[in-house]
Amino acid sequence: METLEAARILMATSLGFHIVFACIGMVMPFFMVVAHYKWIKTADIIYLDLTKAWQKGLAIFFVTGAVSGTVLSFELGLLWPGFMKHAGPIIGMPFSLEGAAFFVEALAFGFYMYGWKKISNKWFHWLSGLLVGIAGLSSGILVVSANAWMNAPSGFDYSNGIFSNIDPLKAFLNPAWFSQALHMCLAAFMATGFAVAGIHAFQIFKGKRADHHKKAFKISIAFAVIAAFLQPISGDLSAKDIAVRQPVKLAAMEAHYHSQKSAPLYIGGIVDEEKGEVNYKIEIPGALSFLSFGDFNAEVKGLNDFPRDEHPPVAITHYCFQIMVGIGGLLLCISVFYLLSLRFKNWANNNWYWKIFALLGPLGFIALEAGWIVTEVGRQPWIIHKIMKTADAVSPMSGIVYNTIIFILVYIVLSLAIIWLMKRQLKAFNSLDLKK
Asked: Is the model's pTM score more than 0.85?
């Protein structure tokens, strides 16, 4: 395995592991404070039990997310020194602000966790929990802004390999930051909401403390459904942005090889990169032109219009895009189903109802991972779009393959440990032994 390949696998593994915990850390505090608010307003002890249970679960993910995020920070410098040499002064501001946001998040979470019966003002205690969510969400937006800069580099002049006239604020507010941050935040709420709802739905299906789990389900599914309805709007903004700034990425996402007006949208299909074609696809005439430019007759550039050495890996980009959109559409349908179930309340009396949500629970995170693959792989071969190629940024150090193997094993062990801890917490919640 070559150094570049090993570095990319290691970075992808680290990011794929971290993003799950980062998203949960961004979203779960809001579930927690809603339950806490309901306890303050209703004095229903179930909401207090739920608040403390979610607080303990959040603590596990918070620690794991902090550690895996620190690893990613080191990997940026150790694996991609060519990138950090030039990008560091440009995108250092959002990274430093992210560090400040994380500090506020950690401090607020400390107040919240250890403030029970110690902070006399119940609303100040509640606000410290809300601040955890706001700081976590801000932290995620800042990191996504730095990633968006890699897709839409701005805030500097570039000539003869030299970066000059650096404007960190302009780099932070790059053309892609809003659409990418919005899409990511909604994806986090959607994935976490359906996952948490799925866990509680499964417990209801098994007959475990339905009174507690139904309240937990209602809070988490509400966030998920709202995000699911907003996500297509966000996706449309992102698609139109990519069509203008990164047309080769759009072509790879849709596996379009030939430029054409009134370009069709492909559903499914098997990509043959050697022949430059897609087989067994379903075509919707003119749909891609409309989704990209708001005009059914607009021309969409195909991959054949770009140099071969600037093509991203088409098959994986296309398949992951299809997975992301397909799951998003399915979860939107299940959101409609949930809203209908509020009208037909007898549906919730049947086991099949809870089984549906339990089975669909993990899909949001699968879509989340697929979306990040589209974002990162679809940008290749560039690490900074049209400025620096990934191969030019990698470390010349040998032996990265051994680090890759070690870290993959570490992430597997950590994943198993987290599963064990969460099962333990769930068992404690079912028995209301919240001291565990």
From this structure: yes
